Amino acid sequence: MTSAGDDAPIPATLNAVLLAAALAACAGCLWLASHAEWLATRLLAAGAFSYVNNTVFSLLHEATHGVLHPSRSTNDWLGRLAAAFFPTSYTLQRTFHLTHHRHNRTELEQFDYLRPGDNRFLKHAQWYSILTGLYWAFVPVGCFAFALFPSLLQRLRGTGTRYGEQTGAEAYLGRLEDAPGATIRLELLFTMAVQAGLVLALDLSASGWALCYAAFAVNWSSLQYADHAWSPLHVRDGAWDLRVAAPVRWLFLNYHYHRAHHRHPRVPWLYLGRYVDEDVPRPSFLSIWLSMWRGPRPLPATAEER
């Protein structure tokens, strides 16, 4: 183990073993969803895929912070492999995720609140795309749109418009102007090769692949805002250390300890439990997720951004 901080060594070997095991489990689930005779078996395979591919995503998340492996090149290549199972570009994911850390719970990332002047239809469309998993589809589609039609950025960014501010498009798409386009395109070719290799090697059916990724989309997308919804409007403290069943938290590699992560983004997943403040409210994932279905709320009059 090599240190990412005085008390937080990177569990490099464990991470590599977990990534290999999770990728193998994902491949097995995809195969079963494509070849099982019974619909119930295919549904169970898709459900299992939605969890083990979140393990892969959690390791991708570690890579974006440089704490998957102490070697920068190994960290990035393992991150690219994990990104291929999302599927997305590793560099694009890192660019967007680090932008999220800079703007967390600012006006650019208050999707849970209706602010004065917001377009209510757009706000609700964004919100329910997160809850239903449609949000996931924007990632691979957006990657390939950027690779093929980079000029779309200026049209979609909405610079200086309420749309650009309300959706966060201005901040996020603006970061792509400085991103290494050639690297992103090469990573997307790698991702396509990995996905094509899975289809050919495992003889995957379109329905089996789609079933697994639809289940993953809903599972992944829901957590991406449940760990922030209704939390304080604070860049570092604006997240929850959600309570969830231990086996689920293990599969997500402590991703539910999200406030601890935002306060200590360089601490590897294995040690985040040490940084959970038990004196701060810790709602359950289920309670937050259920409350989200009621839709965005009016911005509290006493809300302050910090």
Overall description:
This protein is an all-alpha fold and 306 residues long. The protein has one domain. The chain has 14 helices and four strands. The strands form two sheets. A two-stranded antiparallel sheet has the order 1-2. It has a two-stranded parallel ribbon with strand order 3-4. Strand 1 (2-3) and strand 2 form a beta hairpin. The longest helix has 26 residues, at 39-64. The model has no long low-confidence stretch (mean pLDDT 90).
Rg of Cα set: 19 Å
Low-confidence stretches: none
Q: Based on DSSP secondary structure assignment, what is the total number of beta strands?
A: 4
Q: Provide the number of structural domains.
A: 1
Could you outline the blueprint of secondary structure elements for this entry?
Blueprint lengths: L1 E2 L5 E2 L1 H24 L3 H26 L7 H13 L5 H14 L9 E2 L5 H13 L1 H15 L3 H6 L4 H6 L1 H7 L5 H22 L3 H21 L19 H6 L6 H6 L21 H8 L4 E2 L8
Parallel strand pairs: 3-4
Antiparallel strand pairs: 1-2
